[in-house]
Design brief:
Layout: H1 15-23, E1 33-35, E2 43-44, E3 49-58, H2 70-87, E4 91-101, H3 107-123, E5 127-135, E6 140-149, E7 164-167, H4 173-183, H5 189-199, H6 205-213, E8 219-222, H7 227-238, E9 241-245, H8 252-261, H9 265-271, E10 278-282, H10 287-293, E11 299-305, E12 309-314, E13 317-319
Helix pairs in contact: 1-3, 2-3, 2-6, 4-5, 4-8
C-alpha cells in the first residue's frame, strides 16, 4: 500500500469517476480523432510515419510521493515520453495513459494527477487518446506516446568521424535536484531550479524537430540515463568512438550545487541521468548552420573519432571513467530499487 506520505485514502471514488476525471474531462486537442476517447478505442487519422514510445513510473522505484505532488507526477510521466519523441525528431501527437493506484485513493490526488497530465500534454501540443486504470499496491503511471514525422527519423546510429558532439543543456542538474528533494534541503533560486529539473523535465521537442527537419544532426538521443551512458549508446550504435571535454558543463553554479548536495560534481555531470536534454552529433559542414538556425542554446562538448571507445577530459586534462557510474540508475542491477 502507499505510504502515509502518499495519496490519502477516502471512499466513494469509482473506476468510472477516475476514467472521467483523467481521460474524458476535456476533448482531444487534435482534430485527427475520428473517434475520440470514450469508446472502446480511439480512432486517429495521421499523416506520415507513426512514432511510438512507452515508459512506466513506479512509486518507490522512480519517484517518492513524499516530495512528488500528484501534479508533478502527472506532468513528468508525460514529459519523459515526449522527450523520446523529441530525440527521434517527431512531432508529439497523443498519449495513452494507464494508472494503477491503491484502493480508496483520494479524489484530490486523482484530480491533481489528471491536471499534471493535461498540463504537460497541452504545453507540447499533444492530446490524450485514452488509457486504463487498475488497483495496485503502489501508484504506477504508464504512458505510451505517439508522434508523427514526414521524413527520415533521427536515430542513434548515424554519427561519423569528425562530427561535433553537442548537448542541449546542463548535465547532472536533475540528479542534484533529486538529492535535494530526498534530503529536504531548502535554499535559493539555483536549488529550486535543480528541484524543478527533476520534478518537471522539459522535453526538447522544438529542437528535435529543427535538427531533423533541417537535416542538421547525424545522430541523437535524450539523456535519460546520464551523459556517459547515453553517449556510449550513440557510439556503439554508430560503430565509432569519441573524445569529450566536459569543462563547458562544469560551471561554478553546478560545483556549488553539487557541494551543497554532498555529491562529486563530475559524478553528477557524467552519470546522474534524468536530465532529458538532447545529446546529438553534427557533421562539420552543418555546425555553422546549427549555431545560426537553432534558437535554443546548445553546448559543444567533443568530437567523434574513428577509433572505438570514449575518452574524457576536463579543460584538456584527462579524466578516468573507470569505476564511475554509481549515480546512474539501473533497473535490474545494483543501482535498481
Amino acid at each position: 500500500m502507499a505510504s502515509e506520505s502518499g495519496p490519502e485514502q477516502s471512499s466513494g471514488l469509482t473506476e468510472d469517476r477516475i476514467v472521467r476525471e483523467i481521460f474524458l474531462k476535456e476533448p482531444p486537442l487534435s482534430s485527427d480523432f475520428v473517434v475520440p476517447p470514450g469508446d472502446d478505442a480511439a480512432v486517429v487519422r495521421v499523416e506520415g510515419d507513426l512514432v511510438a514510445t512507452a515508459d512506466i513510473l513506479v512509486e518507490g522505484v522512480h519517484f517518492d510521493l513524499s516530495y512528488f505532488s500528484p501534479e508533478d507526477l502527472g506532468y513528468r510521466a508525460v514529459a519523459v515520453n515526449l522527450s523520446d519523441l523529441a530525440a527521434m525528431g517527431a512531432r508529439p501527437h497523443s498519449c495513452l495513459v494507464s494508472v494503477g493506484m491503491p484502493s480508496l485513493v483520494s479524489e484530490e490526488f486523482v484530480r491533481g494527477l489528471a491536471a499534471g497530465i493535461r498540463d504537460s500534454l497541452e504545453e507540447f501540443g499533444a492530446s490524450l487518446a485514452g488509457g486504463d486504470t487498475v488497483r495496485s499496491e503502489r501508484v504506477v503511471v504508464s504512458v505510451t506516446a505517439l508522434g508523427t514525422l514526414d521524413g527520415k527519423p533521427l536515430t542513434r546510429s548515424g554519427a561519423k568521424e569528425g562530427d561535433g558532439i553537442y548537448i542541449s543543456g546542463p548535465a547532472g542538474l536533475s540528479h542534484i535536484g533529486m538529492l535535494f528533494l530526498t534530503g529536504g534541503t531548502s535554499g535559493g533560486e539555483d536549488l529550486e531550479e535543480a528541484r524543478r529539473k527533476h520534478l518537471r523535465p522539459v522535453p526538447r521537442v522544438a529542437l528535435g524537430l529543427a535538427l531533423r527537419e533541417r537535416e542538421i544532426a547525424s545522430s541523437c538521443i535524450d539523456t535519460s540515463d546520464g551523459l556517459v551512458r547515453d553517449l556510449t549508446r550513440i557510439l556503439e550504435a554508430s560503430g565509432v568512438g569519441a573524445s569529450i571535454d566536459v569543462a563547458p558543463l562544469l560551471d561554478e553554479r553546478l560545483r556549488k550545487l553539487a557541494q551543497a548536495a554532498g555529491v562529486d560534481p563530475l559524478d553528477a555531470l557524467l552519470y546522474g541521468g534524468e536530465d532529458f536534454e538532447l545529446l546529438f552529433t553534427v557533421p562539420p559542414e552543418k555546425e555553422k548552420e546549427l549555431l545560426r538556425s537553432v534558437g535554443e542554446e546548445v553546448i559543444r562538448i567533443g568530437i567523434v573519432r574513428a577509433e572505438r571507445g570514449l575518452s574524457d577530459s576536463l579543460g584538456g586534462e584527462p579524466l578516468s571513467l573507470s569505476g564511475k557510474g554509481k549515480s546512474s540508475f539501473e533497473h535490474f542491477g545494483e543501482g535498481g530499487a
